[in-house]
Amino acid sequence: MRKDININVHHLTRVEGHGNILVDVKNGSIEECTWQVPESPRFFEAMIRGRHYSEVARITSRICGICSVGHTLASVKATETACGITITEQARKMRTILKHAENFDSHVLHVGVLVAPDLLGAPSVFPLVASHGPVVATVLRLKRLGHEWGSVIGGRTTHPTTVIPGGFSKMLTIEELTELKEKILASVDDINTLVSTVASLAPNIPVFDRPTEYLAVSSDQEYGLYDGFIQTMMPDGSKERFPVSDYKSVTNEYLSPNSTAKFARHNLASYAAGALSRFNNNYEQLHGEARKVAKALGMESMVCNPYMNSAAQIIECVHSVYESLRLIDELIEDPAYDANQKAVEPLHFGTGASAVEVPRGILFHEYTYDKEGICVGGNCIIPTNQNHGNIQLDFDKLVPELLEAEKTEEEMTLALEMLVRSYDPCISCSTHYLDVRFKK
Amino acid sequence: MSDSEKRYFIKDYDFSSFLNNLMESENLVGPIAKKNKFVFGKINKTEDLRLDYDITILPPKKFFFPPAQKLIEFDGENYRDCIDPQKMVLFGVHFYDIKSLDMTDFFFSEGQPDNNYLANREAATVIGSSVQKISERAFWGSIGRDVKPKGHDGFLTRLGDTGYVYDVTSYKGEALLTYGNFRNATKEEISKAEKVNEDIMHQCNAQLPFPTDKLAEKVRAEFKNEELWDELAEKCFSCGTCNTVCPTCYCFDVHDKWNLDQKSGSRIRYWDACLTSEFAQVSLGSGTSENFRNTRGERFRHRIMRKAVYLNDKLGGPACVGCGRCSTSCTADIADPVGVYNRIMELEKEAEIAARKSQNIFMPRKAMILRAEQTTATERHFTLKMADGSSVHFEPGQMLEVSLFGYGEIPIGYASSPTRTRTFDIVVRSVGRVSKALNKLEVGDSMFVRGPLGHGFPLDKLRGQNILIVAGGIGLCPTRSLIQYILDRRDEFYNFSLFYGTRSPSERMFLEDLKSWDKSPEIDFFETVDTAEKSWKGNIGVITTLFKKKALTPDTRVIICGPPIMYKFVIKELDTLDIDHGNIYVDLERRMKCGIGKCGHCQINDKYVCKDGPVFPFSEIEDLEEAL
Amino acid sequence: MAKPKVGFFDFSSCEGCQIELTNYGDADFVELLNHIDIVEFREAMSEKAEHLDIACIEGSFTRKEERTRLEAIRKRSDVVISFGACASTGGINALKNHQTDFQEYVYGKDAGAAHLQSNAKALPIDGAIKVDYKVFGCPMDKYEFLNIISSLLHGKTPEIPDYPVCVECKRNETICRFQEGDHCMGMVARAGCGAPCPEAGIPCEACRGFISNPNEASLVQVLIENGMPEERARNKSRIFTNAMRSDA
After folding, report:
1. In what order do the strands lie in the sheet with A271-272?
2. Chain A residue closest in CA terms to C113
3. Residue A38 lies in a domain
4. Distance between CA B168 and CA A242 in Å, rounded?
5. Element spanning B477, H or E
6. Does ipTM come in above 0.90?
7. What is the set of domains in chain B, with CATH numbers?
8. Is the overall model pTM greater than 0.80, yes or no?
9. Cα B321 from chain centroid (whole Å)
10. Shortest CA distance to A140 belongs to which of C43, C15, C142, C27?
């Protein structure tokens, strides 16, 4: 049956920022199938010019409310590289725990509040308060845990205060570390509940495979999040590493031949970033408890279904809980632990880049400072923008498959919305623009 | 309660077990460190307590009148009060903060007693402690010193490393005795403790250079001087910091808040600050408002008026304990009352200068001779009063030009203290045409004077310090002004010594003074003459020999006045004592004509002795080739 | 009392203020839902409403076409609340307002493209429509927001402080940044946040905007007196208050 389908999702809901889905099928042939981002440009790279190095992270944190911890960490790391600063091991561990807090916090929100309604057939989380009260309460408690866990270290989770170039403006006391540990331990039951709920809903996750290139931070020491190299993994499982300073040659921002948008690509026409990329790249380094959950979900590297990104996020939640508990113990048991530790001062000023894994994938920041420590330029490449190309290629493969399966317009719309949502896009991050074409 | 049986002693060795016992049985609160500052907070282990603190960020009123205090809780139509005093022992409160509690006790008790404050106050045992370290901006040594604090239950005075004298002032203070190994204090310990608390009063860096009894009147008089208040408040941020940290500020605002159930809630009072712009603002509806203190100057003035005038009328003294918290905390550094009050005092001087501007600067005024006495063969001592009956104002060390028409003018230092304002003394040595003519005058005659001129001894740098005056020969005349001043205000200064040397007994001046100083316990007076007949019973030798007679500390402030040759030898002696050259003041003599920095006679390098001196810190002139 | 219908909207912003709504935890959030009906919230749900009792708008007004969207929200809402710094004061988005080359700098040769055009200045939303109440802060304080909602539920004008952050630092006994050799904008910044930044050891950047009558001249002077180079001192207050400066 040849049919007409016209999908025009203006400002997709349950994602951060604004995106549009446009599909136009005339007489069974695809005329248009586009993922668009009409987010207002915000000009952060222009704003940081003329600002003192101590202010830059406070500004670029405001790129995104949900990954502001990650932006702050990427920003201070780039500034530290530019200023010849090596932070202390204690500060590095503390930042890693903070990074875990953000990923946990964001993943819980994404899976529990934004994705769960899709899997439970509800339009939003609000009707779930009545129909699935205990699950919603568990999610809200875990969201609160992620918030408190991040806040005790970062001062806040939305635009953290204590993270400054050189370390922290305020370190936790041993008592605070112990309290944090107990708070996380007290939530293990809730976490198990969330894991088993997701496992029970896993059959509702659509099946769609499209092998692609996966890009993530990778390190010999740990499951790459806060620190490491850039690593790429090809569909055949081969991996290659690049130093962070080469980030531009890995991301290769380019203008698409059909649009003026900046996309990113490396070896293939597009690559993916995010929880699934990290899972595929760094599976071996997941905490044992997290691998157990992966097994229960039937997942092992590599997984090529982008809808499974949400499942990878749950696995990462478990990893973050147990890794953080381990790191907290190390800090508590460290006889040299210094709750009054001061931030390391800059040695010189120059140019520096950083890569940090934020919930949605690999994030790059780069800054140049003049000899007075005043910023003269910067660049931020956010994971959502790196994923736009991959989403488009997923669309290109998925839409014909859906047409083939004779799905209705409503079913197709939901499938496409769910696909975009599974990437957990954070469009308000977009410091670069994308092509925008409105279908009349 | 001054009876000695209420004073106890606890050894340093026993102090921590006393604290431990207190902590176990009571809710113990005291000064604890917050980074490099201090706050009053819960004492969980003995090391937390920092009795060596200088000042806390907030005063202890926060325990009785918290920054946010629930007054009433409501739930629909039901409501109840929230008075729920928690027992506590508030430990280690400095005397100035106890004074401030006396004031807030008064404010919250007058009219309708406010039990939200008073119940908390009643539940607390307040234990004072002696100041061990002085906050940089404190000026409690010179404001309301005569007011003794009384709102405490006990007071601990640290006697070096030996222990503490514990002064019990109430039954609540007495109750704490059971926690420690106290014994009755000895008389010696009691007097040592008194000395510790008395001595510290002289050691503040900041001082009000005038007594505070006239403060209210003088500040009140400037109310309408808008220019002054705008000038003082130009940098003001209206941030209310000075109010918020002040121990005697007690204004508040009240807000109602619902709980999340939207049914229950509370009525809460918050500290308010009259410096913030919305403090006196009232809404007139439809988005408009009227502010009764609209400018920074008006708000700044209100704070000063309230502290120095309005509350002064109630308290009998300024509502300020000199803690210096406002001075320390003000980012623009304009809140310091010492600066404000000095500025107001300066206005008087400025008014005088302005009045003088329209006059001929050489115009003298007539003075009558009340006393004329030949003290030595060449020196004649006059006591004068202004012919028009006006009072005289000058600083010790300042000069005046004295003249007789047809003979001329000569500069002479005041030889009496400005604390005696109706008359003043000068001593004239017969050396030239003018002085010889002057010295022929008798009681009832008049002469002409112009002054005060120049800068005298820096009283604000001398207060609270150990003082040594070294006077040689006629150098005793200008220094007599300072000596009298110090003796008139003896408690504002610490150890006070005077070395006086003359060439021979016949040159000794002010014989009656010398006799009384010799007997006085207020002054360590040493005298010597270079040469003398056998009848002379006192010391013989140059003035530097007196340094053997008196041990001097390196922080001593030294004033030197005498013949030029004396300076070099005295300063050499002072160098062996490690006395800073900035703490040595020399009174220089030069040929002068005009006395107002114009004629050029007295110029040393770029300085005019008449205008910039005659008193200089030695450090300021030691490198000037022509000075000594 | 019928539960008021509340909608949340986002313009140019990081959406962090909406994220803060998810941080109340289970008990408080569920209790909040007993008193308001969230009927529109793109970030969390798909439905749309015709009429709103309260519209909470996050983000700045930065592009011409946003005026139409804002006006449409105003039209169907009884009360409009600007939600967070971007909406209330222009916030961080205004940091480029004094620059003229920001488009070229970020987009290079593409800067002329039609869909990239921005207003020369990022403005608070009251630059486009009437705003009834403002929730300040970057991010907004989620408990202050509850108090404001609470006031509106009872028909009471919300109490929003107009005194500076210094008051809150002093109440907290936070050591002044200037006494730690740092700088701060707390003297001119609107309080209400509880002053968490200085307590965390960093300066206040005035994310809640200026108080009503900020002494800007004194701010510059005090910054210079405390060792900040003059140019930096003059530019200091741009981060969150660029649209509120006397030279804006």
Report:
1. A239-242, A229-233, A213-218, A271-272
2. A260
3. yes
4. 75
5. helix B476-488
6. yes
7. 4-202 (no CATH), 212-353 (no CATH), 365-453 (2.40.30.10), 459-587 (3.40.50.80)
8. no
9. 12
10. C27
What's the helix, strand, coil split of chain A in %, to 5?
50, 15, 35
- Asked if the Cβ–Cβ distance from C150 to B241 is below 8 Å, we say no
Which residues lie across from A365 on neighbouring strands? A354, A380
> Tokens standing for B138?
């404190």
In this complex, do C187 and B237 lie within 8 Å of one another by their Cβ atoms? yes
The burial of B370, by beta-carbon neighbours within 10 Å (0-12 exposed, 13-18 middle, 19 or more buried), is given as middle
Q: Shortest Cα distance from B598 to chain C (angstroms)?
A: 36
Terminal-to-terminal C-alpha distance of chain B: 57
Nearest alpha carbon to residue B207 among B300, B145, B133: B145
Backbone Cα Rg of chain C: 19
Q: Which chain C residues in 92-121 lie under 8 Å from chain A, judged by CB atoms? A: 92-93, 95-96, 99, 101-103, 105-107, 110, 113, 115-116, 118
Query: What stretches of B388-458 show up as alpha helix (H) in DSSP?
Result: 433-438
What's the token pair of residue A31?
Answer: 């005329």
In this structure, the number of other CB atoms found within 10 A of the CB of residue B218 comes to 16
Task: Indicate whether A434 belongs to any domain.
Answer: no
CA trace torsion B265, B271, B276, B277 (10° rounding): 40
**Which among B37, B257, B273 has CB closest to C175?**
B37
CATH at residue A73: 1.10.645.10
CB crowding B260-286: b at 16 or more within 10 Å, else e: bebeebbbbbbbbbbbbbbbebeeeee
B27, amino acid identity = N
What three-state secondary structure class fits C6? strand
Inter-residue contact A430 to A388 (CB < 8 Å): no
Residue B27 structure tokens = 């809710």
Cβ-defined contact of C239 to A59 (cutoff 8 Å): yes
CA atoms of A60 and A43, how far apart (whole Å):
10
- A205-227 pLDDT, tens digit per residue, is 999 999 999 999 999 999 999 99
Closest-CA residue of C relative to A167 is: C201
Cα–Cα distance list, A344 to A80, A83, A153, A154 (Å) = 9, 10, 18, 17
Q: In whole angstroms, give the CA distance from residue B244 to residue B238.
A: 12
| Per-residue pLDDT in tens (0 to 9) along chain A, 440 residues | 457 777 776 666 555 566 778 888 888 788 887 777 665 567 788 889 999 999 999 999 998 888 899 999 999 999 999 999 999 999 999 999 999 999 999 999 999 888 888 888 888 888 888 888 899 999 999 999 999 999 999 999 999 999 999 999 999 999 999 999 999 999 999 999 999 999 999 888 999 999 999 999 999 999 999 999 999 999 999 999 999 999 999 988 776 554 445 678 888 889 999 999 999 999 999 999 999 999 999 998 889 999 999 999 999 999 999 999 999 999 999 999 999 999 999 999 999 999 999 999 999 999 999 999 999 988 888 888 888 889 889 989 999 999 888 888 888 888 888 898 888 876 544 433 322 222 32
Bond from prior residue into B452 cis (ω within 30 degrees of 0): yes
Give all strands (DSSP E) within A375-419, no chain letters. 375-381
Q: Which domain holds residue A303?
A: 5-429
Neighbours of chain B (3+ CB pairs under 8 A): C
Domains of chain C from N-terminus onward: 5-153 (3.40.50.700), 165-244 (no CATH)
A1 close contact with C: CB closer than 8 A: no
Pairwise CA distance, residues A246 & A269, whole Å: 19
**Rounded distance, CA B530 to CA B40, Å?**
60
> Is the minimum CB–CB distance between C69 and chain A shorter than 8 Å?
no
